[in-house]
Structure formats: C-alpha cells, structure tokens
Amino acid sequence: MVGAVVDSAAEVSIISDRIYEAMVQQPPPRLRDVKLLMTRRDASMPSFVVGPVDLKIGNCWYRKHLHVAPKDVDMLLGLDILVNLG
Question: What 3-state DSSP class applies to 8?
C-alpha cells in the first residue's frame, strides 16, 4: 500500500522514484521522458511517464499513466485522476 497526498494544484499524478524502483512486481514500462514545470519561476523537475498502472482507491480500481519523479512523498494525486473520479 502506498500513501497518497491529494494536490488539487497539480495537473498530473506523480509517484516517487523510490516507490517505482521498489515495486515488487515488474515495474510498468517507461514510455517517455518529460520535464515537469513547477510553480516557482524557471523551476522544473525531471520525470518520466510509466503505465498503465492499476490503482485501487477505496473500493474502485483505475488504470492510469503516472509520472515518476524524485519526490519526498510516496504519491501525489493530481487533477488527471481527481477530475475522472468526480
């Protein structure tokens, strides 16, 4: 189980690189490299997109692509997931 923080200001959902590397089963495939833009001027963070990843939130399952980045929290749930959950 992974703890997640809801971030209603984030456009995309992110898992930490530590969680990605520690996945017991085969980690989802790396699809492309991206640069995430931060709220500070001229700030960015390297990341890559993986997927699809099966997520269980409550009693519901979702299949999504996620960004992997060096974060201190295990996972950020962004608008890409929150909007689809209603």
Answer: coil
**What pLDDT, in 10s, does the model give residues 63-75?**
999 999 999 999 9
pLDDT tens digit string along 30-80? 999 999 988 888 889 999 999 999 988 888 888 999 999 999 999 999 998
In what helix (H) or strand (E) does residue 4 lie, and over which residues does it extend?
A: strand 4-6
DSSP string, 18-83: HHHHT-SSPPPPEEEEEEEEPSSTT-EEEEEEEEEEEEEETTEEEEEEEEEE--SSSEEE-HHHHH
Helix (H, G, I), strand (E, B) or coil at 3: coil
Element (H or E) spanning 84, and its range? helix 79-85
pTM for the model: 0.86
3-state secondary structure of 6: strand
